[in-house]
């Protein structure tokens, strides 16, 4: 029977009804009720005056989230990977030397982008779970004074490590280079100050600490980055991501058609950013840090060890070593089936060795932490590795009260 005949033979299809989960993996995060409601608002045309007005507000709200005055700040129609490609495709020309820092999966993806754009990647490697070493970056520039760009991940999602974006950007400036920064997991989850730190091209994702639906990538470009894009000698290799074309859609007073924007997803992002502005960006950073301490105390009461040292540990992405003799896949399956709780597995060389627990945006709540501690203690005990949920609760509550 052919596929078409098989479909025709079925009596009916039912509407998809997803289960209700608590999302505490590396993304996506839970959506706030207001954001979910915004996604269901009536669709209007992407050049409708009302939608155009919302686009202007959205840019202003993103400037607040990024802590920048950059005029070229907007959400790319695509996930964080498209935001990444937008930055590299526009700023890297064939033959350009780019220093790329790799201390996890996503630094590796930056190397791939440089190479696909025809650039020459000079790789600065650091151990997974550790921040980028500024001295290694300084040495790389001294050995490659022709380098025009420095690319690094501010918050490495594969490990939970934060690098010193301000220090790295200062090194790049001293050598006359611009920066491309992955802030997919850091935006709205920990301190990020684009203007104060002198960052040039920064991309993020809507589904992490902004707690919106996946599929949008907020980006921001400094005046120096925009000048470099406008002075290119060769065409951007991607028509869709060519900012010289996109500018007239997002930035001109009289918008011209470029593509049909994901209208309802942008409603959701706008609502998420309104809620961020209501909370206050510094309050959001503080909330993630405070509840990280609560989760950390509960984990430590169960003798779970963190991968990243305290000074460089992301509050919104907590990576712990899997205890010996515990089956990774079975435990995560138990959490999902018995508690409707999703956590993240390890990536690359950390696969099967670590768990990643997200405390991002709307998922960063006390109730989620208590559920996580209870579920984890139960699942560990079932696998013969006893864990005391009451002791973990007590430690978590003490940490929150401190």
TrEMBL record:
Keyword Transport carried by entry: no
GO molecular function: transaminase activity
Cofactors: pyridoxal 5'-phosphate
Keywords from the UniProt entry: Aminotransferase, Pyridoxal phosphate, Transferase
Domain spans labelled Aminotransferase class V: 43-346
InterPro entries registered for this protein in UniProt: Aminotrans_V_dom, Aminotrans_V_PyrdxlP_BS, PyrdxlP-dep_Trfase, PyrdxlP-dep_Trfase_major, PyrdxlP-dep_Trfase_small, SP_NH2Trfase/AEP_transaminase
Presence of the UniProt keyword Translocase in the record: no
Transmembrane annotation, as ranges: none
Similarity annotation: Belongs to the class-V pyridoxal-phosphate-dependent aminotransferase family.
Identification of the protein by name: Alanine--glyoxylate aminotransferase family protein
Protein source organism: Rhodocyclus gracilis
């Amino acid at each position: 029977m052919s596929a078409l005949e098989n479909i025709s033979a079925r009596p009916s299809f039912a509407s998809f009804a997803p289960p209700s989960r608590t999302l505490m993996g590396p993304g996506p995060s839970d959506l706030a009720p207001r954001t979910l409601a915004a996604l269901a608002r009536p669709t209007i045309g992407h050049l409708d005056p009302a939608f155009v007005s919302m686009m202007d507000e959205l840019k202003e709200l993103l400037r607040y989230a990024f802590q920048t005055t950059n005029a070229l700040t907007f959400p790319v129609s695509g996930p964080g990977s498209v935001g990444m490609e937008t930055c590299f495709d526009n700023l890297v020309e064939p033959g350009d030397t780019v220093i790329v820092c790799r201390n996890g999966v996503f630094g590796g993806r930056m190397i791939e982008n440089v190479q696909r754009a025809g650039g020459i990647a000079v790789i600065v490697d650091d151990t997974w779970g550790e921040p980028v070493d500024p001295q290694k970056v300084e040495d790389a520039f001294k050995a490659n004074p022709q380098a025009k760009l420095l690319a690094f991940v501010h918050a490495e999602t594969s490990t939970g490590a934060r690098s010193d974006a301000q220090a790295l950007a200062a090194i790049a400036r001293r050598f006359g280079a611009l920066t491309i920064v992955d802030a997919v997991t850091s935006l709205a989850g920990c301190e990020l100050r684009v203007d104060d730190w002198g960052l040039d091209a920064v991309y993020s994702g809507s589904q992490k600490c902004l707690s919106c639906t996946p599929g949008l990538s907020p980006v921001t470009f400094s005046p120096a980055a925009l000048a470099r894009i406008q002075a290119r000698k060769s065409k951007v290799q991607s028509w869709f991501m060519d900012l010289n074309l996109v500018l007239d859609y997002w930035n001109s007073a009289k918008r011209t058609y470029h593509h049909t924007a994901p209208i309802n997803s942008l409603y959701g992002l706008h609502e998420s950013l309104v809620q961020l502005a209501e909370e206050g960006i510094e309050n959001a950073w503080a909330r993630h840090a405070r509840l990280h301490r609560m989760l950390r105390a509960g984990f430590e009461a169960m003798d779970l060890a963190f991968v990243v040292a305290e000074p460089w540990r992301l509050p919104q992405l907590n990576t712990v070593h899997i205890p010996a003799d515990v089956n990774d896949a079975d435990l995560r399956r138990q959490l999902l089936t018995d508690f409707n709780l999703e956590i993240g597995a390890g990536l690359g060389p950390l696969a099967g060795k670590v768990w990643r627990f997200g405390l991002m945006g709307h998922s960063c709540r006390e109730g989620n932490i208590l559920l996580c501690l209870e579920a984890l203690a139960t699942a560990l005990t079932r696998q013969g590795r006893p864990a005391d949920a009451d002791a973990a609760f007590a430690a978590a509550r003490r940490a929150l009260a401190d």
